[in-house]
Structures are given as structure tokens and as C-alpha cells.
Amino acid sequence: MQEKVKSNGKLVRQELQEREVVETQINSVKSWVQETKEYLGNPTIEVDAQLQELQILLTEATNHRQNIEKLAEEQKNKYLGLCTIVPSEISLQLAEVALDLKIYDQIQEKVKEIEQSKTMSQEFSRQIQQVAKDLTTILTKLKAKTDNLVQAKTDQKVLGEELDGCNSRLMELDAAVQKFSEQHSHLSKPLAKKIGKLTELQQQTVRQAENRLSKLNQAASHLEEYNEMLELILKWIEKAKVLVHGNIAWNSANQLREQYISHQALLEESEEIYSDLEAMSEKLQCLTSVYYTEKMSQQVTELGRETEELRQVIKIRMQSLQDAAKDMKKFEAELKNLQMALEQAQTTLTSPEIGRLSLKEQLSHRQHLLSEMESLKPKVQAVQLCQSALRIPEDVVASLPLCHAALHLQEEASRLQHSAIQQCNLMQAGAAVILFHQKHCLVKEVRRGITWSLHLIGEKSICHDIIYYVSVFN
């Protein structure tokens, strides 16, 4: 009896241990189910990781269900071998946990829901990316420069229509994403961030479109003003080239002064070119965002360089003209003085009034004129000095009419002086002849008088003596 009691006690303890193991397994599954329910109700990780986690949960749910089914079968067979049924507390727990493991369907539904939401999110992302791509293309075209304003305005209109289409799609996307986010908050942040960036890109594109349209509308007037200033500068450069490449007329001080004035006027006119070039650069700054201005900028730089070079050449020529005019004026004055002196001498030499004077008076007058003509030498020297001091190219000096005139006047001065000397010599010779003739006639008269007197007094010896002395005197 005691052995039977011991045997039964041992069986009871074994049963209790086995039941405890079964309950532990059931409780473990129940705990897993509870944790899974909590996770499904409040997921905290991103979608891809969540899907991966749900797949793990599906596998675990399958394993738990298989284990519970196996455990139930084992318990059934065990108690069937004992000719009894599974205890109610065990069968109830097994039934409850089997029911709890229907969470597998919830997990599958959750996976399906997340995959659908992920698909929708991906579709939204694709649409956002497409709108962003279209906006980027439009923005790139809006930033492009042109060399044809008419075509650019036509293209701008087309881009504006495309931009309006993108704006409409963005508004629709924004509304759809907001509605989607209300049901799928775990996916709302990435989409909201993308929508935010897309909105920024859209606003940037709109600003660029408005700015470009404004600049295109202004570009026509800027180009027109640029071309007007360009035309004026090119005309000035052409005039300046003609002027500086032309030969200087060195003939007279008046001509030199006139040329100096024309150079000065052109130089003063060029003062406006600097302000025009600056204004042209400002026009290019306004055009540079929509118009190809590289060649135009180089053109402005080249115009500035060429203008400055021409200005320097004009200044050098002006200095040469000023120096030459100053020297030429002095040269002309000395020539005029010499010419006036020569004309006065010529007038004196050829004056008919002098011819009416006695030979002695004419000789005295010629001698006085000859002494006065000595004053021509300083005048001739002054002309020569002025000519040698002319700041004019040497190859030009020899061909100047004034230099020829100076040479002629110098020759004329020499000729007049020579003529005056000859006239004086002739008059002196004539005066000597006349004086000799007068003396000869006087001697004859004296001889006749003495002869007649001697004849009267009869003193021939005295007569011969007187004749001798008269002859000696003669």
C-alpha cells in the first residue's frame, strides 16, 4: 500500500512538473502575442525595417502555431494513453493561445497594408521626382542665355506654360500627400520633406521666370541704347583715324591753328566716349543674365583701348601743331618785316622823283640808301634763324612755300643791295666825268682869258707861266 502511495505521489509530482512546462510554453507564446500586438499598434521604425520585422514576426507566429499544435497533440496523446481527457485548464489555455496566434492574419494584413502604403509612397516619390526633374529642366532653360531676343521671348512663353503645369501638379501632389499622411503618419515625414524641397524648387523657378521675363522685356531697350552709343563711338573712331592718318598742312600758321582747333574739337568730343563706354558696360551688366555678352564686353574693352590710343596720338599731333604754329607765326612775322623793308628799298630805288634830282643829290641819296640797306642783314639773319628753328619735319621744310618765299626774299635783298652798289658806282663815275669835264672847260676859258689879257699887255713870259700853273692845277 505504501509503495502504491509512493508511486502515485511520484506520478502526481511528474504530472505537475509536466503541466508547469506546458504552462510555461503557453505563457511564453502568450507573452510573444502580447508584445506583437503592442508592436503592431505602435510601430517605431521606418517602413523597410518594419517590413523586415513583420516578416520575422510571421515566421515566429508560424513556429509558435506549429509548436502549440504539436503541444496540443502531445497532450491529447498523453492523456489518451491515460484513458482520460486533457485537463480543462490545459485545454482552455491551449485553445486560448491557438486563438491568440490568429495574430498571424493581423501581421499579414499589416504587411499588406504597409506594402500598399509603401507602393503609394514610392509613387508619390516618383511623381515628386518627375515634377522636380521638369522644374529643374525649366530652371536650366530659364538660366540659359540667348543671342536672339525674339526667339527668347517665344521660348519664355512656352516655359511659362510648362511651369504653370508643374505648379498645378505640385498642388495636386501636395493635397494627395497630406491626405495620405493622415492615414500613414509613419510615411508622412519623408514625403513632407520632399514636398517641401519641391516647393522651394518651384518657388525658385517661378522667381527665375519672373526675373527673366522682366529682363527680356528690358533687354530690347538696353540693346538699342548700347547700339546707339556703339555707333557714335565707331563714328568718332573713324573720324579720328582719318584725322591722325591724314597729312598735316604745314604751309602757314593759320592752317596750323585751324588744324589744331579741329584736333582739339575731336579730343573734346572724345570726353563723352568714356561715359558712353561706362554706360555700355552697365547695359551689359543688365543683359548678362539673359544675353550672350562676352563678345560685347571684349568689344567695349577694345573700343576703350583704341579710343585711348587715338586720343594720345591726337594729343601728340596737337602739341606738334601748337609748336609749329608758334614757330610759323614768328617766321611769318620776320618774313613780313623783311618783305616790307625790301619793298621800301625797291620803291626808293625805282622812285621817279629821285630821277629829277641832281646827280650829286642822287648819289648822296643812293649812298644813304646803301647804308640803310645794311639793316637788311639782321632781318635776313632773323628769317634764317626762324626757319632753322621751325619744329617741322625736315623733309617738309624744303617744300614749304614760305621757305621758298624766304629764299626769294634773301636773294632779292642781295640783288637790291648789289643793284644799289652798282648805281652808286655808276653815279660816282658819272660825277667824276662831269667834274672832269667842268674843270677842262674852265681851264680852256682861263687860257683864253689869259691869252687875251697878255695880248693886251704884251707880256708873253707871264702868259706862259700862268698857263704852266693852270696846267699843273689841272
From TrEMBL:
It is found in: Endomembrane system. SUPFAM superfamilies: Spectrin repeat. Gene3D superfamilies: 1.20.58.60. Keywords: Coiled coil, Membrane, Phosphoprotein, Repeat. Residues 51-78, 199-226, 253-287, 321-348 form a coiled coil. Signal peptide: none annotated. The keyword Phosphoprotein applies. PANTHER family: NESPRIN-1 (PTHR14514:SF3), PKA ANCHORING PROTEIN (PTHR14514). This is Spectrin repeat containing nuclear envelope protein 1. It comes from Cavia porcellus (Guinea pig).
